[in-house]
What does this fold into?
Amino acid sequence: MSAVLLPFDSAGRPDFAGLAAQIERVAAAGLTPAVNMDTGWVHRLDDAQRIEALETARRVRGGARFVAGAYVEEGTGPMGGRYRRAVEAIVTRGGTPILFPCTELQSATGSDVVALFREIAQAAPALLAFELGLDFVPFGRIFDADTIRGLLDIEGVVGLKHSSLRRDLEWERLELRDSRRPEFRIYTGNDLAIDMVMYGSDYLLGLSAFAPEAFARRDAFWRDGNARFFALNDLLQYLGAFAFRAPTPAYRHSAAQFLKVTGHLAHDGGPSDGPRRPESDAAVLADIARRLAALVE
It folds into this structure.
């Protein structure tokens, strides 16, 4: 899966036509697109814009699968009701919901988290959980082992995106998954360790939005036992280390810069006060893009 970047135009407005093009590109590469994620600036959109992102995904996908973040940080009323409404908006448009963290979820007990997921899972054919570290958002949360065990025991929760940027915690989740529920999916969100696919993780990455075709080729090399996997993975990881350096949230601008230098976006903008990288990054990204093109030929 790939978290699709929401482009912005030169005036700092969301570009939903550009979003449609990025969804199409990700899908054409064979990856499942995910909208209204951190990479999609979900926390900087209003309710109407989040719905427009869902409608864009619904229209482009035409009934094919997509994932969408259920974001409730700025809503009113009880947390459970806010999540139910967000999940309903996704499910009715054909998407698979992933529960984006919020401040109340951050402070909830582990048993309350499990109870919430058990309740919300009844409102969706399939539900994904999401651990997101504080490097990305101030209201992120990484669950403890008991909470992970509880989530694994909920039939309707079919996977977990883990974005701690720590291998050891992800390895713990893989071990729990393998011993408790082997069909459950662990989706790495570790853009600094994209080789977690070698250890049994799947992925839902923001980095794959930079170059979905290269990720698809890398995956095929790994599936087929082709040693070209390693050179391509190493270069993609170099891209990840460069783009996701501190401050981590500025990776979205890195993504826009990369998509601009590769001809997939006309502008590398974001919200007017969004974190930005120096313009000199574009030359480094262009060099990486040239090297990637040679490896995927």
User: Anything to note?
Assistant: The chain has a mean pLDDT of 96.
